[in-house]
């Protein structure tokens, strides 16, 4: 598929999605949002893809919504049906919302944060499974400085990532946080020199693609995203049901076989 405001290319089993509006710091437009959703959902369906890396072209990851579009955005756009996920009876209602295609994708998503991640750029990073930041990255919620509120579930996600005190600080002050402080508060998983960012992100994606069962990763991702909505009993019941299925899977047999035979695994995802 041809895109206007993103690029997608594959390196083996890894899909690399790049926001491609560097002259606008990869600020979001309706076109970019629609293309990004299409690309991630397509990678999620592609049996050849085992991990997704999301990054930005140029000096920014994503500076939030493009101000020219935000200025004329109808207030009701936030609830437009066109942005919602098609209703899926196999997913809880929480995954039918605007950006829930990130946690709903069965593949791990790694945000390689090369520069500014502000507003919706930070929201997208939080919806990702891994966040690797360049030492040049900077983070801000930005909403309060625009007269807006904590959008798209960030008031739910951010405290779970950095704790209530840090979330209150970041949301209400909208101050900028550099990569070192982001790492100290747990906002990102690791910080690497700018020149190593994509190499490190791709190394993680390759490890997730070749060393572990894609079936296990998909189930664990769903468990991790659903656990905050569950009681302990429900989480255990879900784990027990999934354990029965995993013990019957081809990947379980291969997991034992490659360990016993002392060779690299050949997981199929089945």
UniProtKB/TrEMBL annotation:
Tell me which InterPro entries the record gives.
ClpP/crotonase-like_dom_sf, Enoyl-CoA_hydra/iso
Q: Which Gene3D superfamilies match?
A: 2-enoyl-CoA Hydratase, Chain A, domain 1
Q: Which UniProt keywords apply?
A: Lyase
Q: Which SUPFAM superfamilies match?
A: ClpP/crotonase
Which molecular function GO terms apply here?
Answer: enoyl-CoA hydratase activity
User: Which BP terms does GO give this entry?
Assistant: fatty acid beta-oxidation
Q: What class of enzyme is it?
A: lyase
* Enzyme Commission number(s): 4.2.1.17
Q: Which PANTHER family match?
A: 1,2-EPOXYPHENYLACETYL-COA ISOMERASE, ENOYL-COA HYDRATASE-RELATED
Report the protein name in the record. Answer: Enoyl-CoA hydratase
